[in-house]
Design goal:
Elements: H1 3-9, H2 12-43, E1 47-50, E2 54-61, E3 64-72, E4 111-116, E5 121-127, E6 132-140, E7 146-151, E8 158-165, H3 171-180
Antiparallel strand pairs: 1-2, 1-8, 2-3, 4-5, 5-6, 6-7, 7-8
């Protein structure tokens, strides 16, 4: 006995009709697909992401996101590097707010007011290298990379940074985590 035979034998077709039953089944199927696709798309940005100089940790904060600097290639100032002193942890010294210039870069949250639009995450991102805050959007592209676009005014006038998942603990990621004293990759 097929599915339609089973449904017919329990009396559902008689009460709502075959067309009505098909509509109900289609609605249930679409709702299930929609919820799982929406959830996986929205959560796809979560986790550790790397480029050649840093590891970032993207996490949920209520209905928003945080993106913290988890590890960097050079976590401490080198000899004769300003603002120094050598060996001390890098600070947010380019921040326009003088009171924030002494905060360490490691652990710094870069996102402000991030919200899910139904297609991607959007908000503002702080760039500690320049001390500027930009409008931004974030999503995982079709190759599995985290695509972050920072811009002024409209997205056309901006720049995109790409990050790969850091979960595979490459030699570069392990070196940054060890240098930064961070946890991850079995450390």
């Amino acid at each position: 006995m097929g599915l339609m035979g089973l449904i017919g034998s329990i009396g559902l077709i008689g009460s709502i009709g075959l067309i009505g039953l098909m509509r109900v089944l289609l609605a249930v199927l679409l709702m299930g697909c929609g919820v799982s696709a929406w959830g996986s798309t929205q959560d796809a940005v979560l986790g550790l992401w790397q480029d050649d100089r840093s590891v970032l940790l993207v996490a949920r904060e209520n209905n928003s996101l945080s993106m913290r600097i988890h590890a960097v290639k050079d976590p401490n100032y080198r000899q004769d590097e300003m603002p120094g002193p050598a060996g001390s942890p890098r600070r947010d010294f380019k921040n326009p707010a003088a009171a924030l210039q002494s905060r360490p870069l490691l652990g710094l949250d870069l996102l402000v007011g991030y919200a899910w639009t139904g297609e991607r995450w959007e908000g503002e991102i702080y760039d500690p290298e320049s001390g500027n805050t930009y409008k931004s959007r974030m999503e995982v592209d079709n190759t599995g990379r985290l695509s972050m676009r920072g811009y002024l005014g409209v997205p056309m006038f901006g720049r995109t940074a790409l990050f790969t998942p850091a979960g595979h603990c490459s030699e570069t990621v392990v070196a940054m985590i060890v240098a930064s004293g961070a946890s991850g990759c079995g450390r």
